[in-house]
Amino acid sequence: MYVMHNSEYPLSCFALFENGPCLVADANFDTLMVKLKGFFQNAKANKIESRGTRYQYCDFLVKLGTVTMGPSARGISVEVEYCPCVIANDCWNLLMEFMQSFMGSHTPGVPSVFGAKHDSTYGPGDTMVQYMELFNKIRKQQQVPVAGIR
């Protein structure tokens, strides 16, 4: 289980399970987890975060962040939101066009979280699932074994 926070939702705490649901809880969920430390072990060495700047351009929110793992930078995150739309599939083409205007050929494909949410409302938990996928990719890049030289 991964416990995550988002500065856009300071009173909420997100608990994500590996390939499972996203639980949205009160910010005091962290203190509950401390009391349950006999059952859940905190992996401080795996702390990863994205910090950056939030920009607004007309109806779009763009958040650019540096992903850090410990003291070193490991990547860049780009989050784009089209505020008037809560059904992500309805505005995906518009989001793609907007992202291509500043990301060019580095524009990502359709996120996997959209696969299960064809016409349903997109919420903060879905954003956290996407951050978790990004963080897992970055963690796996760090764990690539180095071939020994003989």
Radius of gyration: 17 Å
Summed over residues and divided by their number, the pLDDT gives a mean of 84
Structural class, please? alpha+beta
Strand content: 25-35%
The parts where pLDDT drops under 50 for at least 5 residues are none
In short:
The protein has a three-stranded antiparallel beta sheet. The protein is an alpha+beta fold and 150 residues long.
Write the layout of secondary structure elements.
Blueprint (H helix, E strand, L loop, with lengths): L1 E3 L7 E5 L5 E5 L2 H7 L12 E10 L2 E10 L2 E11 L5 H16 L20 H19 L8
How does this structure look, described?
With 150 residues, this protein is α+β, with helices and mostly antiparallel strands. The strands form two sheets. Strands 1-2-3 form a three-stranded antiparallel sheet. A three-stranded antiparallel sheet has the order 4-5-6.
List keywords for this structure.
single chain; 150 residues; alpha+beta; 6 strands
